[in-house]
Amino acid sequence: MTTVPPTRGDQWTFLTNHARVLLHIARDPDVRLRDVAASVGITERAVQLIVGDLEAAGYLTRTRVGRRNRYTIDPTVALRHPAEADHPVGDLLGAFLHREDTPAP
């Protein structure tokens, strides 16, 4: 039996790693970044860079609690792409999380 190599069409997904990291943090604001990395399938360093991007853009804030971080998402911040800029990130979170888990504005 021969194995067919993956084509370019087999490699893409609808959500970016930024969206996946944000969704994971929205589900568990006390999550460790190494656990996010394992879940998303990227390196811990990549998750750290993404969290830095999300923090710099105002999507989340990081608060030190003892030796850990707690993340708070601002669901009112608009999505970045001009085609979606009239939608807040809370809409994206609401589409993927149970309504009772969606951060309140």
Features:
105 residues; alpha+beta; 4 helices
Structure overview:
38% of the residues lie in helices and 11% in strands. The protein is an alpha+beta fold. The protein has a two-stranded antiparallel sheet with strand order 1-2. A hairpin with a 2-residue loop joins strand 1 and strand 2. The radius of gyration is 16 Å and the shape is globular. It starts with 16 loop residues before the first helix and ends in a 9-residue tail after the last helix. The model has no long low-confidence stretch (mean pLDDT 90).
Shape: globular
User: Over all CA atoms, what is the radius of gyration?
Assistant: 16 Å
Structural class: alpha+beta
Share of helical residues: 25-40%
Q: How big a fraction of the residues is strand?
A: 5-15%
**Mean pLDDT score, rounded?**
90
Q: Separation of termini? A: 54 Å
Strand order of the biggest β-sheet? 1-2
